[in-house]
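I trust your eye. Have a critical look at both lines of this record:
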Amino acid sequence: MGLQLLVVAGGAVGIAAVARRKGWPAPLLLVAAGLLVSPLVPPVPLDPDLALFVFLPPLLYSAALDSSYLRLREVRRPVGLLSVGLVVFTAAVVGLVVHLLLPGLPLALAFALGAIVAPPDAVAAVAVGRRLGLPRRTLTILVGESLFNDATALTLYRVAIGAAVGGSVDLAEGAGLFLLAAAGGVAIGLVLAYTLSWLFERTRDSMVENALMLLIPFAAYLAAESVDASGVIAVVIVGLHLGHRMHLRGFGTRLVSGAVWKVTAFLLESIVFALIGLQLETVVDGLTGVSAWQVAGYAAAVLAVTIASRFVWLFAVTSLVNLLHRGERSPAGPQRMLLGWAGMRGVVSLAAAFAIPPEVPERDRAMLLFLTFTTVIGTLLIQGTTFPALIRRLRVSGEQEQYEDRLAEAAAQQAALEEGLAELDRLLTELGEPDEIQKQVIDQLREKSWHRSLSAWERLGGGTGQGGAETPSALYRRLRREMLQAERRVFVRLRDERRLEDEVLRELMAQLDFEEAILER
């Protein structure tokens, strides 16, 4: 299993690298590649514990760190309607339809399938939306939904599976279990969030802080799950809290944290989507005693109902909310259409299907697994491949927001420049009359501040001057990059000539790398 995962990880990173270079959605390419090679390689089973306890916590935590608590608070109503209301609605509708299609399947297992396929995974949709410039509010709703909907779906799944293998569970008891799990997840998340904030304020060590951050998602998830609370909510609460207060950490912590979690999310997402496609042979082999046409009809029906349920909820419930809350800002028609078509399913659904206990009859378990797999693949390949074209067709764009962002950045840089120069003048009055060397240092400080502010204003024009010529800042960055490359060549030559030790070379390279990172920004 370890060797298989290593091979899958290496292949997934290679495919994702090609997708990044070509500007294609990496999740879709990885799923397609997995489907193509699945019949040609030994089965690579998706261990549900691996998905839910190893992959899910860091992916949730990374997304929460990168999210805006303030923007999520602004869209809490649509996020709540999608992450709780829509999940329950989808689970109920799919469950009823599956029970009608397969009367021999117990009603509890039919609702379990509904809970399994109910939560969308916004990774693919958000990746496409960011690349094509979707409005920030739409992206925030998608991200917020994907952060919390797994908690609703997994709780419903546990209730349904419990009813299927252990007896009946009434609606009131199921609602009580859900509320307890949610409240427990919030409580554990808040306790950990404030405890860790207190600890980080006294650590002031970027290495220690980032080492702890690698452990946080697993600790939060396990702590909540060990008491039957929602691990998903606990992880998201901790991530949102720490991300909102990241400005209180040192610059070293922020630089390392950003790089670490970008790499972690990239690697885990690549493996996860490759594993989804690789389940084809495992899923198909479990089906027996049912004709291919019957199975295809069941799969098409579940997929269609899953997709349609999202549109029904979005348009019907949004209209109702508009009537009840006339001052509420709700997504416009085109944005609701995009939100509806963005309901692609992911690895949490497959992991839940693989986790169906052995007490469930093997034939029923195989059918649920197959219907889950076809729904996940169908939404990814049908909705995922057409999502970019739909964005272009509806002409939903965040270009105005991007311009306003650049304008706000330039104004903020100007205000910060004025405050920084005022602070410099105050310090100079304490310093007294500067000598010639001190005057040079002061001039460099003023020049650097003006240069950063000028760069922000230049970006409002797209980084080009009159007639498409390079702006002074763009020219400065280009020439300075070439100078840095020349300096690196000198350092490496001196190392190769044994006139410079490797430890010294790494320190010098780090200094140049930080400067180039600033130039890239």
Summary: The chain is about 80% helix and 0% strand.
